[in-house]
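Chain A, query sequence.
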Amino acid sequence: AAHAQQLNDLNAKPLFLYLPYQAVHVGNKPTSAHPEYGLDQAPAHYIEPYHAVTDAQRRNLSGMVAAMDEAAGNVTQSLKSHGLWDNTLFIFSTDVRYSQQIPPQP
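Chain A, predicted structure.
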């Protein structure tokens, strides 16, 4: 996302920007080959605002969504500040489906 914000000298040129974010999902079950799978997958400062969420996986997932949302907002703001937003088609898509391992919380 940081590189996508560097949109210098594009005012008159067509632009195709493909920005594939890592899928937001609950952490994988740790294995001996990949013990890091059990670690939080969002930086702590994104997880902290969700401290009231009692389920650790749901809290981590919330932090990951917040981080991705901020990154998409940064790209949007950069397009606007470079005068490219008015002629932009912004498509945001994900393949993540609801995890049955984490029950919904009110």
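The longest helix spans residues 56-81. The mean pLDDT is 76.
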